[in-house]
Write a structure and sequence with these properties.
The complex is a heterodimer of chains A (377) and B (245). Chain A has helices at 2-11, 13-44, 46-51, 74-80, 143-150, 191-197, 218-229, 236-250, 253-282, 284-292, 297-333, 342-369; strands at 55-58, 85-99, 105-113, 124-128, 138-142, 161-164, 167-176, 186-190, 207-212, 232-235. By secondary structure, chain A is of the alpha+beta class. Chain B has eight helices and ten strands. Chain B has helices spanning 2-8, 56-63, 86-96, 112-122, 127-140, 156-168, 186-200, 237-244, and strands at residues 12-23, 30-41, 45-49, 71-76, 79-80, 97-100, 174-178, 206-210, 222-227, 230-236. In chain B, the strands form two sheets. A six-stranded mixed β-sheet of chain B has the order 6-7-8-3-9-10. A four-stranded antiparallel β-sheet of chain B has the order 2-1-4-5, covered by helices on one side. In chain B, helix 4 (112-122) runs parallel beside helix 6 (156-168). The longest helix of chain B has 15 residues, at 186-200. The chains are: A alpha+beta (377), B alpha/beta (245).
């Protein structure tokens, strides 16, 4: 009977098509939008992932990774003196203006690494050597800079020279980074040179990067650093999550994406629910005939549930598949952001399951209430 | 002795005693059946006739157990239907009753074999066995060349043959036909009744046909006349012919 139930479903091409389209659209909207949302949130923590250190120390007012409240350089020494700290190095991190050879300007994410250790160096070098950062006026740019400069007709390569706040910067390497939230290219240099590039200020230290000693519990060290220095210390993961949650709490991004996801849910329920109800309603005479011929409610319920979950499964597959293709295309391009963890697939599948269950439940109520005698009317 | 007696005396397939059924409440109450008493025998083709709204279809629904009754009793092959739980009643119906509906009620997306195989599948047969038996029966009713045709690809007469095959495939002892010729032209209707008379009627089986179609009355062994929710009279074919033809 279940095979015949599927044939009953596939045979009604109009409704089957409508159901699959409705559920596909719903799955696409939810998975694609939540993936873009996750991708966007992921961009907010790009710096934490690019720098890759276990513990970050910032001013006590700092709440998230893209917020810089500069500190005095002496703070590095204070952090180094905290028991359990293996090493602590300074990091400059700030948006600056680069003047390109054609005279136009480009905002850049200037990142000044500790010159001795180069802690926080980019994970992947496309060309050049990270050690060359120690050469005079040396900077390393990322792939975003390549594409941004290329749009203006400038082919960035090793040896290209541009200016940062009227000071020469010479490209000695090209690296790969995770794109930042605002999309400015990362330009790496040494900490001391970053201070030269940046406009003079009383305090210029953005973050202190800390490595705990072996056997040292990072969480305990974070608490100790905060207590001893009065600064705010974060474990890397905590910093990322704190940043994500800051954007969720303080921006309209979740509402914007949430509205679209809700719209997908409403459209899914409306289209799938109504179409499935119509499908059951139009087949009610036949279902009643089956009931008269000896089909129990359990048999009819199995048929209806199989039909509902089959269109749900197909719609889910198509919707998520299109979202994945979209993601694959945009990831090659670099934007818009897209990140589809398995949780999104489970979430979308769960929502589709709920829609199908509700649709089937409406149909089953009708089946249960129908008397087999209606076939004689 | 008793064996030969039972062979000669037709077994009672359906018996109703003071059968009553009402619909609605208060002023809108409709008394569809008002103490109906009648018997249908194995081996006969009994037609129930009467004007629209006289209770024929309600009686049919109660007899086959798709509708409950309020008063009296209905016994099918010795089984009081009121004594069966809902599940057992469904199982009883699935095993013992075959249906031929006015609008055929063939599922439009299933082909002839699949439609016919439904009662067997509901009774637990495997798909292969059910389809094999269905194909054989479709050959018997004269549409062996349409096994895989969808209902929409069949004429009305052919559809009704498929419906008859579906009603018979699980070898029910009671066949219920609700206006089997209403959706057919005269020639097709006649052929369908000839099929029922020649291939369906057997000593072990009772066929009850509800109809308005006087052209098929000659096929009946007995004709039960209903009026206003009551059984007015039950005539033999000869009596009916003498009275009305």
């Amino acid at each position: 009977m279940l095979r015949l139930a599927l044939k009953m479903l596939f045979g009604d091409r109009a409704k089957y098509g409508m159901l699959v389209c409705g559920l596909s659209f719903c799955a696409l909207l939810m998975s694609q939008q939540t993936s873009v949302f996750c991708g966007l949130l992921l961009w907010t923590t790009a710096t934490v992932r690019n720098i890759r250190v276990p513990i970050w120390v910032a001013d006590s007012k700092v709440e998230q990774a893209n917020e810089v409240v500069s500190m005095r350089e002496i703070e590095v020494q204070r952090v180094r003196s905290v028991p359990g700290v293996q090493w602590a190095v300074p990091l400059f991190w700030g948006i600056q203006q680069a003047r390109l050879p054609d005279g136009t300007f480009q905002a850049i994410q200037l990142t000044g690494l500790d010159g001795a250790s180069l802690v926080g160096r980019p994970a992947i070098m496309r060309s050049g050597r990270i050690e060359d950062l120690r050469l005079p006026n040396a900077v390393i740019v990322d792939q975003v800079a390549i594409s941004k400069f290329a749009k203006r007709g400038i082919q960035l390569k090793i040896g290209t020279v541009f200016e940062i706040n009227d000071k020469e910067a010479r490209v000695v390497g090209i690296c790969e980074t995770q794109r930042s939230f605002l999309g400015q290219p990362y330009v790496f240099t040494t900490y001391s040179r970053a201070l030269e590039y940046a406009p003079p200020q009383r305090k210029l230290l953005s973050f202190i990067l800390v490595q705990p000693k072996p056997e040292q519990d990072p969480a305990a060290l974070v608490r100790r650093i905060s207590q001893c220095s009065g600064l705010r210390a974060f474990e890397s993961d905590t910093f990322s999550w704190g940043t994500l949650m800051w954007y969720v709490r303080n921006t309209g991004i979740p509402i914007s994406f949430g509205t679209v996801v809700l719209l997908g849910l409403v459209v899914g329920i409306a289209i799938a629910g109504q179409t499935f109800y119509l499908f059951v309603h139009e087949n009610m005479r036949f279902l009643a005939a089956l009931k008269a011929m000896g089909a129990t409610f359990q048999v009819l319920a199995q048929m209806v549930l199989l039909q509902a979950f089959t269109v749900g499964f197909i719609g889910y597959g198509i919707g998520v598949g299109i979202a994945a293709i979209f993601g694959n295309l945009v990831l090659q391009k670099g934007e818009p952001p897209f990140y589809m963890p398995w949780q999104i697939l489970v979430f979308t599948g769960g929502v589709i399951l709920i829609i199908c269950s509700l649709s089937a439940a409406v149909g089953l109520v009708k089946v249960a209430r129908t008397e087999a005698a209606m076939v004689f009317k | 002795m008793s064996t030969s007696l039972s062979a000669k005396t037709p077994q009672i397939a359906v018996r109703t005693v003071d059968l009553g059924k009402t619909f609605g409440k208060g002023e809108g109450t409709v008394h569809a059946l008002k103490g109906v008493n009648f018997e249908a025998l194995c081996g006969e083709l009994l037609m129930i006739v009467g004007p629209s709204g006289c209770g024929k279809t309600t009686l049919l629904s109660v007899i086959c157990g798709t509708l409950g009754h309020d008063t009296g009793s209905v016994t099918v092959f010795g089984q009081d239907l009121a004594q069966l739980s809902s599940g057992k009643l469904t199982a009883f119906r699935g095993k013992n009753v075959g249906f031929v509906f006015q609008q055929f009620n063939l599922i439009p997306t299933w082909n002839a074999v699949e439609n016919v195989s439904v009662p067997l599948l509901l009774n637990g047969s495997s798909t292969a066995d059910a389809q094999s038996a269905s194909a054989e029966l479709l050959h018997d009713v004269g549409i062996g060349d349409k096994l895989h045709a969808l209902p929409t690809e069949l004429s009305g007469g052919q559809q009704q043959r498929v419906a008859i095959a579906r009603a018979l495939v699980h070898k029910p002892r009671l066949l219920i036909c609700d206006e089997p010729t209403a959706a057919l032209d005269a020639a097709s209707g006649r052929k369908v009744l000839e099929l029922i008379k020649t291939r369906v009627c057997s000593p072990e089986r009772c066929v009850i046909v509800v109809t308005h179609d006087s052209r098929i009355f000659p096929f009946a062994d007995r004709i039960a006349e209903m009026e206003d929710g009551q059984m007015k009279a039950v005539h033999s074919a000869g009596e009916w012919k003498a009275l009305y033809v």
